[in-house]
Design goal:
Length: about 325
């Protein structure tokens, strides 16, 4: 697919035109197919909602089932070479800029080097499988909408130069200066993947997969909060009657969000970082995950929402 056609697909917002084109890396159709994961969905009936329904003659209390499940809000790409997002159909969104051209790893050219400074770009883009996911989730019953809009760029690190490439102002934050604060993994178990702060593209990690995962977590951390010192758009929905949206993403806490690997290998399950199991190293240092986040909702059955009662799901 040529760059000109990439641009036309993105500007027109016509996913079908992109899907019909041959893909040389991660393509949109593969991302859409990956939403059919019951493990990531984790659909549960968690309570009952109460509604007041009134007519001209009388009022009655109606009930509806409260459900909770995860929604694939975004695709978060973490990659070494600027302008080479592994998801080709959105690659034109994050081409090199005058002040964001380079990429890759730092080196001292020492053969035994083990303190390698790695750099990763990160893009958080709205998941393209919204319509397919709604149909898939609807098979389990009433389903909740997420916060993401398909193909919407929530964070493009090439536009976030000061924070992403210079760690300003977050290199001065308490979280960035204190050991053991906001870290992914554990020092005591010798499985420390990296620190969330400062939330930029640089970190020291010899394992490329772990480095990419930490950077993806940083991007997810930014877009799921408001008023952060970055150039981005919040990936958040507003609560309303009968709808409880996902909140801030927290590392290691599946109740705030979890990750489904899309490339270099496709996973049909979701996990949090750190996780065990096989971790394939991407040849070009480019990785992508779908970020699934938890939502709860119930069908509106009246004019006034009276409240809800949750079941004890912890014992399940």
């Amino acid at each position: 697919m040529t760059r000109r056609r990439h641009a036309l697909c993105l500007r027109a917002g016509i996913a079908a035109a992109c899907l019909a084109s041959p893909a040389f890396a991660l393509d949109t159709s593969a991302i859409v197919d990956a939403v059919a994961s019951t493990d990531c969905l984790d659909y549960k009936v968690v309570g009952i909602c109460f509604w007041l329904r009134c007519s001209i003659y009388e009022c009655s209390v109606e009930t509806s089932t409260k459900v909770r499940h995860y929604v694939p809000d975004a695709v978060v790409s973490s990659y070494a070479n600027t302008g080479e997002n592994p998801w080709e159909d959105v690659r034109d969104m994050s081409q090199p800029e005058d002040d964001a051209r380079g990429g890759g790893d730092g080196t001292t050219n020492h053969d035994n080097e083990n303190n390698l400074a790695k750099f990763k770009n990160a893009d958080a883009v709205g998941h393209p499988g919204t319509a397919v996911f709604s149909e898939f989730a609807g098979q389990s019953g009433y389903s909740c909408s997420g916060a993401g809009t398909a193909f919407m760029p929530y964070l493009l690190s090439t536009l976030d130069t000061l924070a992403w490439r210079h760690n300003l102002p977050e290199s001065f934050y308490y979280e960035a200066r204190m050991l053991g604060v906001r870290e992914i993994g554990s020092r005591s178990s010798d499985d420390l993947w990296g620190n969330v702060y400062p939330r930029g593209g640089f970190l020291h990690q010899t394992d490329d997969y772990k480095a990419a995962a930490v950077v993806a977590q940083r991007a997810g951390d930014i877009v799921t909060r408001r008023w952060q010192p970055h150039v981005y758009w919040p990936l958040l929905a507003d609560a309303r009657d009968g709808y409880w949206p996902a909140g801030e993403l927290k590392e290691g806490d599946a109740s705030t969000g979890k990750w489904q690997e899309l490339t270099p290998t496709r996973s049909d399950t979701c996990a949090v970082f750190p996780h065990s199991g096989t971790r394939e190293q991407a040849k070009k240092g480019d990785y992508a995950w779908a970020l699934w986040r938890p939502y709860a909702c119930c069908e509106r059955k009246g004019q006034v929402f009276l409240g809800s009662v949750d079941f004890d799901t912890d014992s399940e």
